[in-house]
Design a protein that fits this description.
alpha/beta, 477 residues, three-stranded parallel β-sheet, 14 helices, 13% strand, disordered C terminus
């Protein structure tokens, strides 16, 4: 059978990921929502960037070699809620384009504008004028959390009322203008609503759902089981409706996660802080917005420099040296499923016992393991039902051998002389397969030395990973 391809489980590419850098303008600390899980814990209505400061940032950006790492540029605008300052953003973009043109700078054409908004004032004339003016160079994402129940649990106005109805009115306009992609965050309270929320977004016409759980220390016993169950239900929905190759996407499913770190992984880091320079309203420069004081609770903000003095490269050094090898402890480095376990360097810095960049929180450890198990379930079913193999071809390093009968075949250096023909029961096989999944082990079935018919055990194996079979007639795969 000719193997088909899948899109559900692959990552979605970004604009020139290897050739562009991101520069963030924190245009305001204010927001018209008070989302419960927001990392901006110190909002302020009177801290906004003025145009003169923004112009100096643009001049510094275009004239200094300190901040130029790549041939392309992403101008990212954030808050608070960035579209509260839509007129200012418009002015900044105009000034950037004009200045880059006058300088004959290679960023004049080689740039993109990126904005993530809560969508409250998306349809306002000032926002729409800005979008239409920059349509071929801008990407806008509206954060919609799924169902009305899920969204209104977290994304609320200052008076405590939900924002779903207000934002949903703007979604059709947004979908007519941009790629249908949204950002969803899950916390403890809304985790049981994950399955129906993702599907509701797909049904709304938003095929690309970038989702994650919060990094904070909120997770309790049993939360990982809820996450796993919700993701398995979602995997079943995709499989049963054969949506795996129809362009649907949810970032919880990823073919690259759930394997040990390679040597290359050791020398990289999950987060791009230090290459995501941020400018704040008062003129300071940060390695990323999460090192700015509006999202820090335990340590002082990490300032790389300012408009007057430029960037202090010695303060950049810890970000050049920040790698998984130096940020992780032995447990994380030796984890069999380390790849894809996410973290935020700015959050790690704030949670560290001392103000260091070489620290890594592990609050989501069990949630990552649940995600990996659900991915194993999805890719196992995809292979066993449709003969579609996980394209990266990787399997767990460690194996769990199942001796299906007492008179198992001799294999490797293990010579079996037992003549009894007791066969492993179905329940034991299932228990063993579940144990293998829980502990990231690859099952190896060792058959009887006689004509053992595995199919007669009537064990449904379609949800379990591809196995190595050992018997008299088959070679190890």
């Amino acid at each position: 059978m000719e193997r088909e391809e899948y899109t559900f489980g692959k990552t979605v590419g970004s604009w020139r990921p290897d050739r562009s850098q991101t520069v963030t303008f924190i245009v305001t600390e204010d927001c018209n929502l008070r989302c419960k899980y927001c990392y901006v814990t110190h909002k302020s209505s009177d801290k906004r960037m003025n145009f003169e400061t923004a112009k100096k940032f643009v001049d510094y950006l275009l004239n200094s070699d300190d901040l130029r790492y790549s041939e392309a540029l992403v101008l990212d605008f954030i808050g608070g809620e960035p579209f509260l300052e839509a007129e200012l953003i418009d002015q900044i973009c105009d000034y950037f384009k004009i200045t880059a043109f006058k300088l004959d700078h290679n960023w004049y054409w080689n740039y993109r504008i990126s904005i993530c908004t809560n969508g409250v004032n998306y349809s306002s004339p000032v926002v729409q004028n800005f979008i239409n003016k920059n349509m071929n160079k801008i990407s806008v994402t509206i954060s919609l959390d799924g169902t009305k129940e899920k969204h209104d649990l977290q994304r609320i106005f200052p008076d405590g009322s939900g924002s779903y109805d207000t934002i949903n009115k703007n979604v059709d306009l947004w979908l007519s203008q941009f790629r249908a992609a949204t950002k969803v965050t899950f916390a403890r309270e809304d985790l049981p609503l994950l399955y129906e929320s993702i599907i509701s977004l797909w049904n709304r016409g938003i095929n690309e759902v970038n989702a994650n759980v919060v990094f904070e220390d909120v997770w309790k016993e049993g939360d990982d089981k809820i996450l796993e169950e919700q993701l398995i239900k979602l995997a079943d929905y995709v499989i049963e409706n054969e949506l795996y190759d129809k362009g649907f996407y949810c970032s919880f499913f990823d073919e690259k996660i759930g394997f040990p770190y390679t040597e290359e992984d050791m020398n990289e880091t999950y987060c791009g802080a230090g290459k995501m320079i941020s400018f704040n309203p008062s003129g300071n420069i940060y390695p990323c917005l999460r090192y700015y004081g509006h999202s820090l609770n335990n340590h002082k903000e990490w300032v790389l420099g300012n408009l007057k003095d430029g960037v202090d490269m010695e303060k950049v050094r810890p970000f050049v040296l920040s790698t998984n090898r130096l940020q992780s402890d032995e447990e994380c480095l030796n984890c069999e499923i380390a790849r894809g376990c996410g973290f935020c360097q700015g959050f790690n810095y704030d949670e560290a016992p001392t103000p260091t960049n070489f620290y890594r929180t592990k609050y989501i450890c069990k949630m990552h393991k649940a995600r990996v198990r659900a991915n194993d379930y999805y890719f196992s079913k995809l292979y066993n039902l449709f003969d579609i193999e996980r394209s990266n071809g990787q399997t767990p390093n460690k194996q769990l051998y199942f001796l299906l009968s007492d008179d198992y075949v001799t294999y490797c250096s293990y010579k079996n002389e037992i003549k009894a023909h007791n066969i492993m029961e179905k329940d034991e096989i299932i228990n063993g397969l579940n144990f293998a999944r829980q502990n990231s082990l690859r099952p190896v079935f060792v058959h009887s030395n006689n004509s053992f018919d595995f199919n007669n055990t009537k064990v449904d194996l379609c949800q379990y990973s591809r196995h190595i079979f050992l018997n008299n007639f088959m070679q190890p795969s």
